[in-house]
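Example record

One chain of 226 residues, shown exactly as stored in the release files.
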Amino acid sequence: VERFIASYEEPPEELILDFDATDDRVHGEQEGRFFHGYYDTYCFLPLYVFCGDQLLVGYLRPSRIDGARHAWAILALLVRQLRQAWPDVRIIFRGDSGFCRHRMLRWCERHGIGYIAGLTGNPRLQRLIEDDFVQVEKRFKATGEKQRNFLDLLYGAKSWGRRRAVIAKLEITAQGRNLRFIVTNLNGDAQELYDGVYCARGEMENRIKEQQLGMFADRTSAHHWW
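Predicted structure tokens for this chain:
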């Protein structure tokens, strides 16, 4: 984080912090190894935080945990350090649905942090958009071309205790329905927030691959004994 701060000649106006967890596979009997059902292998579950192409956090964890574990505490530490350096910087937390936790969202709201995160769909959300989705399907049948629509919703999960702004992406292709939800406290056009802000987090996957390949290279560059 100190190197990241030092890399700026002038205070930035905005920082987007990308959070993600991934598998770090093990091939022996390492302490802390566990089988992870999603990745179908024995692995660790490191947490990464990037800002653009710069790595802020690489936190090795066992895989027998919630992928969002400790993310809130790490976000709080990062915000404190970044605001000490740049009191006026705008900070946005971005993550997939695995990081959509009420405690995280509430903390962001209390501390003036923007957030945009994936939201897992459920029957209640699907009922809210069904009539609109039917209209999108009709347009697809009439044209034979991919159709998309974006909706602004107000939705509150029982655990939230309040309603929040949710964006729904309704897409129809030859493969069928593609329905996605995100929750955010950012202002702006629904499609621009989804396509221009949320989907940009996909670039983080390349940054994670670079880290894993780098770590692998570091491991294999050591002396081998056989």
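Notes: The domain at 123-198 is CATH 3.30.1300 (Pantoate--beta-alanine Ligase; Chain: A,domain 2).
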